[in-house]
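Q: Entry one of two.
A:
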Amino acid sequence: MGENNLLPSGSIVLLEGGTKKLMIYGRKQIVVSEDPQMFDYIGVFYPEGYINQEYTFAFNHSDIEKVIFEGYQDEEEIEFQQVLAEAAID
């Protein structure tokens, strides 16, 4: 994984201070609230997957303590990483 690239969907991570693994299922997510924020990832508990919105977690790459499994990558993923990188420059 490149220095500025995000982990692919399907990656399994443990957050700093966390005790439960999360599976990444989305990237560059805006959490809408009084103060909308952009997060690098959105994830759910692993192995349970989606339970409901209460058990969906937005977090940043810097919050990850350990990458347990890096998700599938192919040409489409590489192209998507380039789009994300270009969007970050703008």
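Q: Entry two of two.
A:
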Amino acid sequence: MSKPEKSVRQARRERTHTAIHTAALALVAEKGLKATTTDEIAAEAQVSPRTLFNYFAVKEDAVMGLRAPELTEQILEKDAARQHLDFFERLTHLLLDIIVASVDGPTYTQVQDLISRYPELRYRMRLHNLECEKTLQAFLLTVDWPAFRIAGRRGPFPFNTANTASAAGEEKASAAVHLATALLRHLDFVRGVPEEGERQQLVSEAVQTFRYLLRED
């Protein structure tokens, strides 16, 4: 019985998320971003202001339809198919998948269109992407780096059973996320995310470029 109940609850959450986002879009189109209030959005969506803030931290998030970033089972399943890839290529895909999933419904492209119309949203999106980076870093802090190195930096991530991160582990996790972020900036994905097939090729080429620049001749 638990699975159907969870499914119904999730469907209700999706409807509420969509209703709030749709109401925010309609009001902003009518009144503008600055003139629209969260109380008006809640009333239009037929929810309480408290419910609105259970879904969106601020008005701008409701307009863009942003979700709290998380490393979902679906993302981890996609990563399982990339365990043979270069570590940094794999990591860049992980970060990009977290970002894309956090703006799923609307799509990432629709969010970028909103930002082009309302440049005030750009700062909020930048903060949101930082939260996506923190989500990935938190995941990497659970990785057993010595065991991963022994495995040739391939295959499934081994996890630290002690559930504690060493200073060296924290440094590696932070550096790895910074590099993945740099790769995404190099690819200029803030302007839009290509389809999966093209995305794979672009990330692979970017990793090779970075490796070329970092090599010692």
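A: Comment on entry two: The chain has a mean pLDDT of 88. The chain has two domains: 2-64, 73-214.
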